[in-house]
Design goal:
heterodimer; A: mainly beta; B: 111 residues; Immunoglobulin-like; 4-stranded antiparallel β-sheet; globular
C-alpha cells in the first residue's frame, strides 16, 4: 500500500480556507485517495474520495494533479468545530484495508 | 443517513477476561472491518471480513482475537483473554460501495 506523508500539524483562523497536502509518491494505478476527519475519542468520519483531477462535495474539495503523487484537501471557511485530525489514505477500493498515518492535526483559532 | 453503531461505548474488564465488542454495520454493506486506536496513537487495521470469512488480518490480530457475524445484522470482535495492552478504542467499519464508514468506537479498558 502506498505510504502517505502529511504535515504533523497546521494552524488556521476561523473563516480562512485551509489546504492540507498529502504526498503519496508510490500510489498505484488502482489506488483511490480518501480523506477522513477524526475528533478525539470518535471514529474517523469520511470527508471525500477521488481518483484524479478535482472532486467537490458539500464540505470539501479534493485536488489531485495528473501524476497523482500528491493530493490536497481544501476546507473552505473553517470554523472552530473543524479542529480535528485529518487523515489521507490511499488504497484499492475493493477489499481495501486502510493503513492510517499520523494525520494532520488542524487547530482552528478564533 | 445510515450509520455504523457499536456497543458498548465503554467496556471495563479485568485482565484475562473475555470481552465481546459488538457492531451493527450499515445494512446492505458486505465488507466489515475492525480497527483499534491506542490512546495518542494512530488507527491500526485489525481484520477485514467478507462473505462470512476473514479476508485479511494484521499481525496484531493473533489467536486471542476472533470475529463473527452471528446473524444478519451484528458483527462481533472477541478478545479471549484480555491483556493490559489491549486497552484502546476499537472501531468497526463497513463498506458497501467505495467508502468505509466507521462507527463511534468502543473504549476498552483492561485493569
Amino acid at each position: 500500500l502506498a505510504k502517505t506523508t502529511q504535515p504533523i500539524s497546521m494552524d488556521s483562523y476561523e473563516g480562512q480556507e485551509v489546504n492540507i497536502t498529502c504526498s503519496h509518491n508510490n500510489i498505484a494505478t488502482n489506488d483511490y485517495i480518501t480523506w477522513y476527519q477524526q475528533f478525539p475519542s470518535q471514529g474517523p468520519r469520511f470527508i471525500i474520495q477521488g481518483y484524479k483531477t478535482k472532486v467537490t462535495n458539500e464540505v470539501a474539495s479534493l485536488f489531485i494533479p495528473a501524476d497523482r503523487k500528491s493530493s490536497t484537501l481544501s476546507l473552505p471557511r473553517v470554523s472552530l468545530s473543524d479542529t480535528a485530525v485529518y487523515y489521507c489514505l490511499v488504497g484499492v477500493l475493493l477489499f481495501n484495508k486502510f493503513y492510517f498515518g499520523s494525520g494532520t492535526k488542524l487547530n482552528v483559532k478564533p | 443517513e445510515p450509520e455504523v453503531t457499536q456497543t458498548p461505548s465503554h467496556q471495563v474488564t479485568q485482565m484475562g477476561q473475555e470481552v465481546i465488542l459488538r457492531c451493527v454495520p450499515i445494512s446492505n454493506h458486505l465488507y466489515f472491518y475492525w480497527y483499534r486506536q491506542i490512546l495518542g496513537q494512530k488507527v491500526e487495521f485489525l481484520v477485514s471480513f467478507y462473505n462470512n470469512e476473514i479476508s485479511e488480518k494484521s499481525e496484531i490480530f493473533d489467536d486471542q482475537f476472533s470475529v463473527e457475524r452471528p446473524d444478519g445484522s451484528n458483527f462481533t470482535l472477541k478478545i479471549r483473554s484480555t491483556k493490559l495492552e489491549d486497552s484502546a478504542m476499537y472501531f468497526c467499519a463497513s463498506k458497501g460501495g467505495d467508502t468505509q464508514y466507521f462507527g463511534p468506537g468502543t473504549r476498552l479498558t483492561v485493569l
